[in-house]
Amino acid sequence: MDIISAIIMGIVEGLTEFLPVSSTGHMIMTAELLNLSGDKIKTFEIVVQLGAVLAVALIYWKKYMQILRHWRDIKTANRLNMIHLILAMIPAVVIGLALHSVIKEHLFGSSTVLVGLIVGGILILIADRPKRKVNAETMDNISYKQAFGIGLFQCLALWPGFSRSGSTIAGGMLLGTSQKAAADFTFLVSVPIMFAASALDLYKSRELLAAEDIGFFLTGLAASFIVGLIAVVTFLKLIKRLRLSWFAYYRFAIAILFFFFVIK
After folding, report:
1. What is the pLDDT of residue 78?
2. Distant-in-sequence, close-in-space partners of 194: CB < 8 Å, separation ≥ 6
3. CB-based burial of residue 108 (10 Å sphere; 0-12 exposed, 13-18 middle, 19+ buried)?
4. For 264, what's the count of Cα atoms within 13 Å in the CB-facing half-sphere?
5. Does the pLDDT value for residue 237 go beyond 80?
6. How far apart are CA 146 and CA 139, in angstroms?
7. Is 166 helix (H, G, I), strand (E, B) or coil?
8. What is the signed CA dihedral for 68, 70, 73, 77, rounded to 10 degrees?
9. Which function does this protein serve (predicted)?
10. What digits encode the pLDDT tens for the residues 8-49?
């Protein structure tokens, strides 16, 4: 891997990690086009993912501080609290820990990612139907029941190619949240889960880390952080005017390219 490849991979990760398009599919295809392979590349992908996670953590740091300051105040109406986050994280944490080795060994194949791209796109189309009933315009209006339901939808993201943001935003919309509320809550909940998952994967891959790779890893992480920051801020500004279904059509197009360039 050279610096240019590290920058390209970082840019792709930053652009796709928190958009409903499947960063896994994009990273696999990018690595294939750049002729990159091996266990060290997988470790690099974990590192650059942390860059995107840190970008979203920075965007929502005030909300995190608010939740931490009022963590005991769980009865206040119209305020997201720690219980919402815990309820949304429990399903994915439990299932993810129980099936972590199975997922890594059996689901990280090209065919499964292709299925995830397509099925995830279909779920988005179903969620983005017109004349939906919305009872939570902002994430502070989300109920405990909706938070847990979104957490269940987040479990779909354990299937590579499905997309964490795609499954949870679509799930939130199906459960009665606005598109903006679902996106905000998705990003807020994703940070602690993804940080913990990335840290666990990085720890298990620690033997593959070497001092001579620090430059490449930090370059990719920086690119992912900067581009992720821009991508998420832009997405949140456009979310009220942008139909989620456009991302479904994009996923279908990427699935076709994925089939020809990766699966062949």
Report:
1. 61
2. 49, 53, 164
3. middle
4. 5
5. yes
6. 10
7. helix
8. -110
9. Catalyzes the dephosphorylation of undecaprenyl diphosphate (UPP). Confers resistance to bacitracin.
10. 999 999 999 999 999 988 998 999 889 988 888 888 888 899
Tell me if residue 164 falls in helix, strand or coil. helix
Residue 192 reports pLDDT greater than 60: yes
pLDDT score of 77? 52
Q: Which tokens go with 185? A: 């809550």
22 burial type by CB count under 10 A (0-12 exposed, 13-18 middle, 19+ buried): buried
Contact, 78 vs 141, CB < 8 A? yes
Is residue 10 within 8 Å of 222, Cβ to Cβ?
yes
Supply 173's token pair. Answer: 């919309």
**Four-CA torsion 26, 31, 32, 36, nearest 10 degrees:** -170
Residue 208 has pLDDT above 90, yes or no: no
Residue 199 has pLDDT above 90, yes or no: no
What tokens were used for 68? Answer: 């931490």
Nearest to 189 by CA among 63, 74, 81, 88: 88
Q: Is 214 helix (H, G, I), strand (E, B) or coil?
A: helix
Amino acid 120 reads G
